[in-house]
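Here is the promised in-class demo. Please do not try to memorize the tokens; focus on the logic of going from shape to residues.
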């Protein structure tokens, strides 16, 4: 066999391997991972810590388990301030986070790499400048997300999310921000098709203004006032309410509910009061 032919075969093999790695390796690795059984202890923790898991029909429970299985393999958890991350912590975070991609592509979380967990609300120091004077401020946070693939959570707030009728869910909130980052901007408008994006903009802009006006008039708002801070927070708070209080949101803002239902490809109002099933 000539050296030229050997070189050609080698080059083809290298190109084939490169194509496989770039376009197929991740899917192959995930399929291989999902052939492994889902541990019974993990299933028990999902049942205990994720109210929606108890309410889902069997086929969607299995889908959530598969998403969780991939999440726990691919994402790295870090305990902060001496906090110990165990399976309860990991399954609680993964179970709630994966609700958002239960019917969406799991690849929406490809850029999420690490989850930092504090035992309780934590203090963040920041520097602010008006162009002349630099000032230092401190803020207490329950969670945050960054466009660098990092999510930070306070475990005490995550524990509240494990309660069936808790209005707030910091895990859903911060992972909604990660979906918002998918198009490169934290603006309250996740990636959408052109027609859907126009409808989303019309619906959400009107609802956002309605919320702000309700607060200005000192009326009872239909959404947590924190949602009026900025569009990015509006989307994150809406996501919490969509999953935690679906019937309330559907009654108060049916167009907003429909927009979220189309985006998440899931209708939580179909499944009754979460956490009631399987009890």
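The designed amino acids, position by position:
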């Amino acid at each position: 066999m000539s050296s030229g032919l050997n070189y050609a075969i080698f080059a083809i093999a290298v190109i084939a391997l490169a194509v496989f790695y770039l376009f197929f390796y991740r899917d192959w690795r995930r399929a291989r991972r999902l052939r492994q059984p889902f541990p019974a202890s993990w299933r028990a923790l999902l049942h205990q810590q994720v109210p929606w898991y108890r309410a889902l029909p069997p086929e969607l429970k299995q889908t959530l388990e598969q998403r969780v299985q991939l999440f726990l393999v691919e994402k790295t958890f870090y305990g902060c301030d001496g906090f110990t991350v165990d399976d309860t912590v990991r399954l609680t975070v993964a179970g709630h986070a994966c609700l958002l991609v239960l019917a969406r592509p799991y690849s929406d979380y490809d850029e999420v790499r690490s989850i930092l967990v504090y035992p309780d609300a934590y203090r963040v120091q920041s520097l602010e400048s008006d162009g002349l004077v630099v000032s230092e401020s401190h803020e207490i946070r329950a969670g945050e997300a960054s466009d660098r693939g990092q999510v930070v959570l306070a475990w005490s707030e995550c524990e509240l999310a494990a309660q069936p009728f808790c209005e707030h869910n910091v895990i859903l909130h911060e992972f909604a921000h990660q979906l918002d980052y998918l198009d490169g901007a934290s603006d309250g408008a996740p990636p959408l098709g052109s027609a859907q994006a126009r409808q989303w903009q019309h619906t959400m802009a009107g609802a956002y203004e309605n919320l702000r006006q309700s607060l200005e008039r000192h009326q009872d708002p239909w959404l947590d006032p924190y949602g009026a801070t900025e569009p990015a927070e509006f989307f994150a708070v809406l996501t919490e309410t969509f999953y935690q209080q679906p019937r309330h949101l559907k009654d108060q803002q049916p167009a907003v509910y429909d927009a979220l239902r189309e985006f998440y490809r899931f209708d939580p109002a179909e499944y009754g009061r979460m956490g009631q099933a399987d009890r």
